[in-house]
Amino acid sequence: MKTTLDLCGSGFLRVAVPCLHLLLAVGASAQTFTTFDAPGAGTGIDEGTIPYSINSAGVIAGYFFGIGGYAHGFARAVDGTISEFNAPGVYPFGTFALSVTTGGAITGEIDSPEAHHGFELVNGTMTTFDAPGAGITAPQSINPGGIISGYVLFTTNVFHGFVRAADNTITVFDVPGAGGGVDQGTLAYSINSAGAIAGFYLDANNVDHGFVRAADGTMTLFDAPGAGTGANQGTEAYSINSSGAITGWYIDANAVYHGFMRAAGGTITTFDAPGAGTGTGLGTFPYSINAGGTIVGSVLDASTVFHGFVRTASGSITTFEAPGSGTGSDQGTSATSINAGGTIAGDYIDSNQVWHGFVRTP
User: Fold this and answer.
1) What is the largest CA-CA distance in the chain?
2) Rounded-to-integer distance, Cα 256 and Cα 278, Å
């Protein structure tokens, strides 16, 4: 279904000056933090603004929770202007923008009472779509050619990967070895410009394993060194760059999280960010890798406080805090996306448990 968004007051899209809180130069290398809130973002507990993806031009896509906890999509232009949008008729759950291309096309997920649907937003026109027979269609990533990847669930509650071609054809796929039980199967999370898809699958024993699917459908499976082999352990791949390098995390036998980077040739390097906790559920969580091999993500410390981190291609890791970040449990800073120029987008949770967006420019 296609819906043309009226920029002049349909209610589906509002253009507003951003709520700009702070511009701050930090340190000798003069990184600049800009914090922002989407207009309409709530200010209560678990409300606020969550940036999710940044493109090479610096456009950011994400979502925010307004009053009542309903989600709305947004796009933030380089000049700070924020456009908010909702899929038509979506109530009461919302619209989640998760990936933006160099050209500004956005994909994500629509949660409605009867089902979950995918969407693509291009030049103000929203197209919604579903994999045939799926109750949940959850796009996670779109590449410059408009090819979308993600995962679907049918009535059996088994995950399957999907890829939606530029001609709108949807192909559903499964990784060899993926389990067929409830909450098992294949989850695709990231697609690069060549059409290679990275993600992970859960086997019949509920162990996670990484995979990369080439554009021709060829599958390569992998596990990070040190990954646990028990239930709820293993390797989870989340981002693939234009060269085919992949980042994500692995969960060891003690349920501690560690980062990894898999080179295009298959060599895997593991790492931990400074200050990462070593207890159950704590550790290092990489979310995004750019064309140059720089990785960003979050660190969860022993006090369950989040910190952003950036890891250069040479392996040097720096942690950072967005101005205004809370210092209590389940508060702090998370870096979610980095573009080719090294600009980072992410979110922070303040001392009142409210989410806010930030941009960190090198």
Assistant:
1) 55
2) 6
Q: What is the mean pLDDT of residues 108-136?
A: 92
The tens digit of pLDDT for each residue in 128-169 reads 999 999 999 999 999 999 999 999 999 899 999 999 999 999
Mean pLDDT for the chain overall: 91
CA distance 321 to 201: 32
Strand partners, 99: 107
Q: What is the pTM of this model?
A: 0.91
Residue with tokens 């101005």: 323
Q: What is the pairing mode between strands 344-349 and 332-338? A: antiparallel
What is d(CA 195, CA 289) in angstroms, rounded to the nearest whole number? 16
Query: What is the Cα–Cα distance from 153 to 99, expressed in whole angstroms?
Result: 20
- How far is the C-alpha of 268 from the C-alpha of 223, rounded, in Å? 9
pLDDT band at 5 (very low <50, low <70, confident <90, very high): very low
User: Per residue in 279-320, pLDDT tens?
Assistant: 999 999 999 999 999 999 999 999 999 999 999 999 999 999
Region label for 89, one of left (φ > 0), alpha (ψ between -120 and 50) or beta (otherwise): left
CB 161 within 8 A of CB 173: yes
Side chain identity, residue 246: I
SS3 readout for the chain: CEEECCCCCCCCEEEECCEEEEEEEECCCCEEEEEEECCCCCCCCCCEEEEEEECCCCCEEEEEECCCCCEEEEEECCCCCEEEECCCCCCCCEEEEEEECCCCCEEEEEECCCCEEEEEEECCEEEEECCCCCCEEEEEEECCCCCEEEEEECCCCCEEEEEECCCCCEEEECCCCCCCCCCCEEEEEEECCCCCEEEEEECCCCCEEEEEECCCCCEEEECCCCCCCCCCCEEEEEEECCCCCEEEEEECCCCCEEEEEECCCCCEEEECCCCCCCCCCCEEEEEEECCCCCEEEEEECCCCCEEEEEECCCCCEEEECCCCCCCCCCCEEEEEEECCCCCEEEEEECCCCCEEEEEEEC
DSSP state of 17: -
d(CA 221, CA 311): 24
